[in-house]
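Batch manifest line 478
LIGAND: glyceraldehyde-3-phosphate
JOB: complex structure
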Amino acid sequence: DEEVYNYYADGEWKKSASGKFVSIINPTTRTPQYKVQACTQEEVNKVMDAAKAAQKLWARTPLWKRAELLHKAAAILKEHKNPIAECLVKEIAKPAKDAVTEVVRSGDLVSYTAEDGVRILGEGKLLVSDSFPGNERSKYCLSSKIPLGVVLAIPPFNYPVNLAVSKIAPALIAGNALVLKPPTQGAVAALHMIHCFHLAGFPKGLISCVTGKGSEIGDFLTMHPGVNCISFTGGDTGIVISKKAGMIPLQMELGGKDACIVLEDADLDLVAANIVKGGYSYSGQRCTAVKVVLIMESVADAVVEKVKAKMAKLTIGPPEENCDITPVVSESSANFVEGLVMDAKQKGATFCQEYRREGNLIWPLLLDQVRPDMRIAWEEPFGPVLPVIRISSVEEGIHHCNASNFGLQGCVFTRDINKAIMISDAMETGTVQINSAPARGPDHFPFQGLKDSGIGSQGITNSINMMTKIKSTVINLP
Ligand code: G3H
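JOB STATUS: finished
ARTIFACT:
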């Protein structure tokens, strides 16, 4: 029987009064692995009340003490990297080594946030009035950063620990309370991560983690009047949330269709290595994965051959064996990927490998000669399938990139730095990587999407700032 996990509220692990559970299916075995509580709306209300009360005291807790607790949580998280990583392997089929890396990266992120927070939040501003026309030097404005209140964090399945702490740590250092709604796949890893914060000794009610069905508590959470900020990472649901949410700051990181533009003068071995890493790591289930290759016709054959050779070396199988390609997160996800592949097949794409699927495991596939009438030219597979579109000019590549609804990241490969900068300027994406595959990290870099890829900017410093407001006190001299 699957193990049952409680939710976290008021500094305790609790069973839901609903008596109901949500099952977590192991993507590899396709059998139930864990069960989490299906929390009720009433339980969400209680969590919000407790968060609000705890936040008032937390905001008055000295900044250095808040930082100290975060450092402690970071150390505990790193100490427990193995059991948490094991959950990631079982719940989301993340390759074993990458699962450990996710937890270690999360510990580092929490520590860095604590350090960054004491600097950023430890500084205020003093303005004097006589710089504005007509004013004497009679007003002194003191401004500093204050917390927003209760932050609701909703991370996605692909980084249930890392993309949770990237919201939790900035919220807490800035003096906010935090309510976490983990993704169903990854919920148990997230609960373990929350346990590390529990062990660090944060005040009761300040941090809570509610699990449950989106249909029951999803809208209820995101539209809850007790929520003062939402930080969400995931898919289209983010667009729905942003339409329904109240007048509160939103941080949204949604999908991407990150393009890789390859110029004729590029280092083709570097290109191939980055296409394989960027396109197929964690089986393409990263918002920053390379999702379309736009390559100059004259070098296309050479690059495709190099990519094929590297793909042939990828290991395919269970995450426990640390294979490069592991099962995608769910059957519906695998079916979606297959739908894109079949559409491309019917419309005449060139298959560089045979399409193969067993359960949720999809063998890595490169589709050459993809044309704009194919769905895969525009849609995000979130699986190990990558389209190649051959272009006859750089402008054609930029045009395809900018015609997308998404605008997360992109990359360009060339030895000509002037061209690279010009292309970067022309690409309508939040970040452009020159001579490397897209990536969010290092985690203190700004990270943002344009268009349907998001709202606001993340990265440690930006997240801390986003989770605060400016408060001014003006001293009026007689
Ligand atoms: O899936 C979205 C993540 O923000 C991507 O992070 O570039 O570190 O894989 P990553």
